[in-house]
Specification:
Distance between the termini: 97 Å
Main location: nucleus
Radius of gyration: 28 Å
Subcellular location: Chromosome; Nucleus
Number of strands: 23
Number of domains: 3
GO cellular component, one term: chromosome
Protein name: DNA mismatch repair protein MLH1
InterPro entries: DNA_mismatch_repair_CS, DNA_mismatch_S5_2-like, HATPase_C_sf, Mlh1_C, MutL/Mlh/PMS, MutL/Mlh/Pms-like, Ribosomal_Su5_D2-typ_SF, Ribsml_uS5_D2-typ_fold_subgr
Number of helices: 22
Length: about 650
């Protein structure tokens, strides 16, 4: 039997474009990097990024740059379209973020893309939608300020294999935060904001006209920023300039943080990283690493900006010579900083302040309020707690998805912050969101909302399927709760979503179809008439702030990934944790409609928020919370004072 050669066929253009798009846009963070660079090229001074589910459901970037001309909207998403060059030779001297003409085109082939833009000469903004690089309909006039809003929805909706290969939404969100944070540091004159859709708070915010060090302090914390030393060098032979900040000999971390920008593009260089870490090996303890931020400006003709599909790698001439120059400069500044290391001796700070985490204040054992017993009786009649204590024998949950989620929590634990939270002394509440705690001789400003949300998530995962119940004595209607939620701005409802009554019916039908699972795993019971009977009892003596109940019911129907077991459990626990967490704002006078449907004594809860935070939340954080690595990079823990440093200030006075 003879073998015949295969027939070579030309692939369909749609397939070709999707393959190319997959090379350029590998994950939401790649798409965002391209969009941020476009915004910076457009001379933006404010850039706001909004995401949903790690950028897979929604990735939006809003800038105040020069905008896009209406005449260019027809071709802006076609491949190899640009305003940066006209001829091939122009590539040699391009001084912007590089060119391949594929960013918007690639995104439009793997997502639903829309652009709203206005230039300073336009009387109104123009909105256009794209699919597979083509304009769907002629641009429509709309309201809008100068600048551009690019909205990417359902990323990889038509590339299922790529979507399955991505990490969890929380991990993808972390990658997005990393990209935004790094560009915010390098572009300190530009204000950056990152938030999740529907959240009132931001995950990251830097003001315009800030400084590099201030933004490092905001994003990586004051403990990193205070140990930085500036570096700079220049060489005519190799045609490059380098400037930045590197950590001194007093700083060390378990992993190297290297922010490298070459000609203002965020890239990586393994060779340069190894060269610099070789210098630090003489100054830092074994298995510890530095923090590095470097900006290299290299003659454009010495750089190939289009080596890698995602522009992640940049090749340049004289790489070894440049690395050696930077090595020498860093070695010189480290040698100087090494002589200034501080060692504290003969100062017994721990004897001067209360540092024993087991010390308690007397008010824990006093009555929570000075109210008469009638209120307590009212509370008892309005809410009953059942199975408040865990059973002696918990059932064993062997679901692979739950075990994996439990392991992820352990893997992401930050040991240093675990020590702080496990052995802290509570000082007091600044607001519902912020509190002061003391660990050893250090004073921290902590984000109670973020910490309590993470703790409740971990309790939901670690105690999966073993919750007690909170019985609602006057069970509210699911339909009424959803309609109430849709009246709130936080729901994000618009007329395009359809009638509220239809949405309410959908939520009732969906949750009723999940009744066995919700009751078995989460102690959340709904009867056949569509009334909410119980909530999970997660923490002893703790009842969530019930004014958030309507929005919670809506979100577990619309934000939970019901089609995948692991994603379902993770997203359900995340939404439930948000409901149980301490809210950013606690209302003294809750809405009458909420009081009508949430018969648990809302007013009584809200008046006792300080007591709940000090005597329920923070003792539970001390006992249960495994702080995430991300808390070390944001402002969840902010050191505001250190006793030895204060003594040094007083000594100089």
């Amino acid at each position: 039997m003879s073998k015949q050669p295969g027939i070579i066929k030309k692939l369909d253009e749609t397939v070709v474009n999707r393959i190319a798009a997959g090379e350029v846009v590998q994950r939401p963070a790649n798409a965002l990097k391209e969009l941020i660079e476009n915004s910076l090229d457009a001379k933006s001074t404010q850039i706001q990024v909004t995401v949903k589910q790690g950028g897979l459901k929604l990735l939006q970037i809003h800038d105040n740059g020069t905008g896009i001309r209406k005449e260019d909207l027809d071709i802006v998403c076609e491949r190899f379209t640009t305003s940066k060059l006209k001829e091939f030779e122009d590539l040699k001297e391009i001084s912007t973020y590089g060119f391949r003409g594929e960013a918007l085109a690639s995104i439009s082939h793997v997502a639903y893309l829309s652009i709203t833009t206005r230039t300073n000469s336009d009387k109104c903004a123009w909105k256009a939608s794209y699919i597979d690089g083509k304009l769907k309909n002629p641009p429509k006039p709309t309201a809008g300020n100068q600048g551009t809003v690019i909205t990417v929805e359902d990323l990889f909706y038509n590339v299922s294999t790529r979507k399955k290969a991505l990490k969890s939404p929380s991990e993808e969100h972390g990658r997005i935060a990393e990209v935004v944070g790094r560009y915010a540091i390098h572009n300190a004159s530009v204000g950056f904001t990152l938030k999740k859709q529907g959240d009132a708070t931001t995950d990251l915010r830097t003001p315009p006209n800030s400084t590099i060090v201030d933004n490092i302090r905001t994003i990586y914390g004051p403990s990193t920023a205070k140990e930085l030393i500036p570096v700079s060098c220049e060489d005519e032979t190799f045609k490059f300039k380098a400037s930045g900040y590197v950590s001194n000999a007093n700083y060390s971390s378990k992993k190297c943080t290297f922010l490298l920008f070459i000609n203002h593009r965020l890239v990586e260089s393994t060779a340069l990283r190894k060269a610099i870490e070789l210098v630090y090996a003489s100054y830092l303890p074994k298995h510890t690493h530095p923090f590095l931020y470097l900006s290299l400006e290299i003659a454009p003709e010495n750089v190939d900006v289009n080596v890698h599909p995602t522009k992640h790698e940049v090749h340049f001439l004289h790489q070894e010579g440049v690395a050696e120059k930077i090595q020498r400069v860093i070695d010189t500044v480290l040698l100087g900083s090494n002589s200034s290391r501080t060692f504290y001796t003969q100062v017994y700070d721990h004897q001067m302040v209360r540092t024993d985490s087991k010390d308690q204040k007397l008010d824990k054992f006093l009555n929570r309020t000075a109210k008469n017993n009638s209120n307590d009786e009212k509370k008892d009649t309005e809410m009953e707690s059942k199975s408040n204590q865990k059973e002696d024998t918990e059932r064993l949950i062997n679901l692979t998805s739950v075990i994996e989620l439990q392991e992820e929590i352990k893997k992401e634990t930050h040991t240093g912050l675990k020590e702080v939270i496990s052995n802290h002394s509570f000082v007091g509440c600044v607001s519902p969101r912020l509190a002061l705690i003391q660990h050893s001789t250090k004073l921290f400003l902590t984000d109670t909302c973020s910490l309590s949300e993470e703790m409740f998530y971990q309790l939901l995962i670690n105690d999966f399927g073993n919750f007690g119940v909170l019985n609602l004595s006057s069970p509210p209607s699911i339909r009424d709760l959803v309609l109430l939620a849709l009246e709130q701005e936080e729901s994000g409802w618009s007329e395009e979503d359809g009638p509220k009554e239809d949405l309410a019916s959908y939520v009732v039908e969906l949750l009723q179809s999940k009744i066995p699972m919700l009751e078995d795993y989460f102690s959340l019971k709904i009867n056949n008439e569509g009334h909410l009977l119980t909530l999970p009892y997660i923490l002893d003596d703790y009842v969530p702030f019930m004014e958030s109940l309507p929005l919670y019911i809506l979100r577990i129907a619309t934000e939970v990934e019901w089609n995948s077991e692991k994603d379902c459990f993770q997203t359900f626990c995340r939404e439930t944790a948000k409901f149980y967490a301490i809210p950013e704002k606690i209302y003294e006078d809750p809405d009458e409609e909420i009081l009508k449907y949430c018969s648990i004594c809302v007013n009584d809860q809200n008046e006792n928020w300080k007591w709940k935070i000090e005597h329920l939340i923070y003792p539970a954080l001390k006992k249960y919370l495994k702080p995430s690595q991300t808390f070390a990079m944001d402002t969840t823990f902010l050191q505001v004072a250190n006793l030895p440093d204060l003594y040094k200030v007083f000594e100089r006075c």
